[in-house]
């Protein structure tokens, strides 16, 4: 998370990252949740930098009970909602990268496929890092490298937005090698999205001006 996060952090203007958890019983009532802020602040789930994400994760672990099943569709849908709002600007201002770390096999595969097909129309990419020795063969299907991913209804993705990387393949590799593999497809995914929409990137002077004059 740190290796990949540091690379992403360099391309984020405010270095604030919303961080969410799934598959746990959370306080105060300890109901199972597949979509909760790891700082337990649903109104402001952002953490300051990747170090802030790590600290929030370490702080929340003793307060919750990890619990199955492993459902990731709710998290994808949450980020897709934010990405959908960005499409109304018709500018290349924000592109969303969802990094999912999981040690379990996805149990809501149909909903996840549906969510990914929907998200493929939006300015976002999904990176899934499988941790541990579970059977991640279903994850490879989501990646789309071996064929076009389709929703349960048969609708194909508009573009490939998922990258799956099994962490066990990088146990003895450098953090830089892991980050390179995890982020390998993102640049082309960003370009493909904006080219498909006919949206040209702002030059740096225009971007800085819009930030200065904006509300």
Automatic annotation (TrEMBL):
Residues 2-202 form the Copine C-terminal domain. Keywords: Calcium, Metal-binding, Repeat. It comes from the Eukaryota. One of its GO terms (biological process) is cellular response to calcium ion. GO terms for molecular function: calcium-dependent phospholipid binding; metal ion binding. Pfam families: Copine. The keyword 4Fe-4S does not apply. Signal peptide: none annotated. The keyword Glycoprotein does not apply. Gene3D superfamilies: von Willebrand factor, type A domain. SUPFAM superfamilies: vWA-like (SSF53300). GO terms for cellular component: plasma membrane. Belongs to the copine family. PANTHER family: COPINE, COPINE-4. This is Copine C-terminal domain-containing protein. It comes from Hymenochirus boettgeri (Congo dwarf clawed frog). The lineage of its organism: Eukaryota, Metazoa, Chordata, Craniata, Vertebrata.
